[in-house]
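Me: Here is a favour to ask of a fellow structure person. Could you put it straight underneath, so I can go through it closely?

Assistant:
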Amino acid sequence: MGGLTWPSRLRARGEDPDPRFSFANERTFLAWIRTALALLAAGIGLEAFAPPLAVPGLRQVLAAVLVLAGVGLSAMAFRRWLRSEEALRERRPLPAPRVAPWLSYGIAAVALVLFVLLVVANLR
């Protein structure tokens, strides 16, 4: 079984789910990918277009955090899709999205830091 491709290994498990569920899983995967692309664009945009912040070098750090978050999220999106598809095929409950709290709190933290730094920079 080691020579089989990953789609063949996936199809060998369980039974084919209702196509509507597989399509919904695929749409969720694409939503994670869109979010990863938005994080990448935000990081690039922050570095390219944002004014200097109150703390020198912090803009580059925040931009790098956003880009790395986009890279990490895009890598996790496929694993999430695969785990969900396996659960659908085996009629198990869908796995919880472990990255969702990190993503939402992380974006909120970066936005708050940027807001504070931009306000401080404009007060000078």
